[in-house]
Amino acid sequence: MEMRDYMDLLELQLHIKEGVAEAFPGRYWVKAEIASWSPRSNGHCYLSLTQSRGGRPVAEARAMIWKWNYPTLKSFFEEKTGQPLQAGITVLVRVQVSFSELYGISLFIDDIDPAFTLGEKALERKRSIERLTAGGYMEMQKELALPEIPYRLAVITSKTAAGYGDFRNHLLNNPDGYVFRLDLLEALMQGEQAPASIISALLEAGGKEYDAVLILRGGGSELDLACFDDYELAVAIATCPVPVVTAIGHDRDVHIADMVANTSVKTPTALADLFLDALRAQDALLDHLCTRLGSAANRLVNREELSLKGLDAQIGRSIQRRLGEMERRVQEAYARIRLALSRKMGAQENTLQRVAGRIVRGMSGKYTQVAGRKDAILHRLRVAASARVSQEISAVALKEARIRATDPRNILSLGYVLVTGKDHQVLKTVEKVSVGDRIGVRFSDGALQARVDEIYSERMDNNKIHIA
Question: Three-class SS of residue 413?
Answer without folding.
Answer: helix
